[in-house]
Amino acid sequence: MSQHDLIPHLFRIEFRKITAVLCKHFGLEHVEVAEDIASETFLLAMETWKYQGIPPNPTGWLYTTAKNKVKNLLHRDQIFKTNVAQNLSHDITLEPAEPDLSEPNITDSQLQMLFAICHPAIAPEAQIGLALRLLCGFGIEEIATAFLTNTETISKRLYRAKEKLREERISLHATEAAIHDRLEAVLTTIYLLFNEGYYSESSDTVLREDFCHEAMRLTTLLLDNPQTSLPKVHALFALMCFHSSRFKARTSATGELILYADQDETLWDKTLITKGAFHLHQASHGELTRYHLEAGIAYWHTVKEDTHEKWEAILQLYNRLLQIEYSPIAALNRTFALAKANGKAAALAEAEKLQLTTNPFYYTLLGELYTGIDNAKAKDCFRQALALAKSSGDKHTIQKRMDEL
Amino acid sequence: MNEYALLMRHEDGSKVASPEQMQIWMKQTMDWIGGIAAQNKFVSGTGLLFDGAKVVGHKNVVTNGPFGDIKETLGGLMIVKAESVDEAIEFAKGCPVLQGAGNTVEVRQIAKSDGVH
Prior knowledge:
The structure holds two protein chains of two kinds. Chain A is mainly α. Among the domains of chain A are: about 1-90, no CATH class; about 100-230, no CATH class. Chain A has helices at about 5-25, 30-50, 60-85, 105-115, 125-135, 140-145, 150-165, 175-200, 205-225, 230-245, 245-250, 270-280, 290-300, 310-325, 330-340, 345-355, 360-370, 375-390, 390-405. Chain A is elongated, with a radius of gyration of 25 Å. Chain B has a four-stranded antiparallel beta sheet with strand order 2-5-1-6, with helices on one face. Chain B has a domain at about 1-15 and about 75-110. Chain B has helices at about 20-40, 85-95; strands at about 1-10, 40-45, 55, 60-65, 75-80, 105-110. Chain B is about 25% helix and about 30% strand. The interface of A and B includes residues 315 and 350 of A.
């Protein structure tokens, strides 16, 4: 790793570790203190390393500095307490405990934090924001870029969420029952975090892949814990493995998105596909969740060959998925699979019933289905899709299809 | 938006179909339900097994299966959302059960607990 990459990498990895451990150390109501200390530690690193060079063990340097900052803070706090409030309390320890920055405690702290921020009192979008900030170490600016909004909005959202953590006195020590109850929200947060990376319209591809890797890392934390290593967690992990196997193939050298049909499958990551298959197998008992179905669909997309068997399987998975969890995009994808499995005529009849008339992808699908059946109508549909499309990438793709007609 | 029950009745539930025929019906049924779900109109549904079916009658008399005296038997039920009974009827028309002569799909609005219906 070059020196240029080292600092951002270290920052992202170590910021979240220090923050999680310090949150556990101070209590979640002091999350800002934890963040401040982590930030100050990095600020000092930037200042010092600039002149003295990067120390041989940068991580150790950061941990020692963070520990010292905690000690100083507690010491100042103690002077205040002993001077001002000496008669009120007698059980103040003179030597404050040092935060434990060992690997098991880091993992433990991050897992606890994940369940704390998925408390039902915190709004879902704030949960993702907090996860990105506190658990993944992303900066406010990066989060704003990913969500296509400004830093002010994200700052406000995070501020309100932290207020909520305090008001509700949310503890890091979730009970076994709370872990059970919140697992669904935790999985949704991780799932959305992954999708934010995978489908975001943000042009920063490196950042987007980082989001996906972070989502996978958080899922690994759950899989390593016996209480949360459940079939649906394996299914979610399998889904992410299958999707991310196509990372290298889905963007061109110039950063443009390459559609599935045009991808060079030799660039697909076979190791991740195998890993996904392993976890999907681990998921094959217990209740059937949306993650199982989506992982199944993603699995079939790792088979490039266009067989009837493939599309029939995908169609049936979408049929089930829509019964559990409707979404417009699933409805459109289901209709596409229907065209592949049952023919365009059958799919057209079903597509006309969907009436998703504000969705550009609806018209793109209709355009595809009419192509070869009624080209004039197909062109009309693509024109409507073009008028509704938001991102330049989508507009470009639609224009290309129109020109081909 | 109201909810409607689609009650699928078979004229003769004891009829045995070939595995190939069953597979075709299964796919048609799954595609039919998927099509309703794709319009976000699916609420719930299930097939009903004929195997081991019992009928509990007056004075708790239990008989085996509904096939002795009653010819029409319930094969499955589904609940859908629809703007009107006409829309629910359109959903019912796609039901593969109707390919069998004598089979029916009964469409019934689900009572709301609002004290009016």
